[in-house]
Each structure stands twice: as structure tokens, then as C-alpha cells.
């Protein structure tokens, strides 16, 4: 087989690969509760935290991976960069706790 023909076949194959789509997952903070408290996601997914309370919250990872501040009645997003289980909480209200299970 000629080298140019092999390259053409590879290009056709590459063009037929279906791309994977990342998900957007919404997590609410309302009445001093994070809901859902446990979320499964994949690397590349976007987490959107929505603060429905009249005071600020944070989404602070216990392992230091992220620390997102959410002003009252606002939202914030984060694209997940690595796999693993991440516990997080609100620095202002430490009883607010949740877990992200991030798959590759």
C-alpha cells in the first residue's frame, strides 16, 4: 500500500469519530444545604453552583483543588480537570458539606 493511501484512510477514520460532550451539572445552595450532596461527574464536565440564599457561600475543596466564592443570589462555574473524589464545604457555614466523584 502506498504511504499516501494509508494517510487518506487515517483521515477518513478520524473524521468519523464521534466527539464526547461534556455535561453541565447544577448544584444548588439554599437554606444552608448543598443539593445534591453527592454528585458523579467526569473530567471535562462543568459544575455550576447556584446560590439561592441571601448570604454568600463557598465551594471549598478539602484537598485544595478549588475554592469558589458565590455571592448571594449568584452562580459560579468550574470545569473539572482531574479524576478523584473531592469533598468540599462552605467556609462560611462548615456544616454545608458535599462530595464530587470525578471519573476520568
Shape type: globular
Strand order of the largest sheet: 3-9-8-5-6
Report, as a whole number of angstroms, the end-to-end distance: 37 Å
Number of helices: 1
Poorly predicted regions are 4-18
Mean pLDDT: 87
Largest sheet: 5 strands, mixed
The proportion of residues forming helix, as a percent range, comes to 10-25%
Number of strands: 9
What is Rg? 20 Å
Structural class: mainly beta
* SSE string, helices as H and strands as E: HEEEEEEEEE
> What fraction strand?
over 45%
Describe the protein.
The chain has 104 residues and is mainly β. It has one helix at residues 3-15, and strands at 24-30, 33-35, 38-42, 46-51, 57-61, 67-70, 75-79, 84-89, 97-103. The strands form 2 sheets. The protein has a 5-stranded mixed sheet with strand order 3-9-8-5-6, with no helix packed on it. A 4-stranded mixed sheet has the order 2-1-4-7, with no helix packed on it. The longest helix has 13 residues, at 3-15. It is globular and about 35 Å long. The two termini are 37 Å apart. Residues 4-18 have low confidence and may be disordered.
Keywords for this structure?
single chain; five-stranded mixed sheet; signal; ET_Amicyanin; Cupredoxin family copper-binding protein; Cupredoxin; mainly beta; EfeO_Cupredoxin; about 100 residues; four-stranded mixed sheet
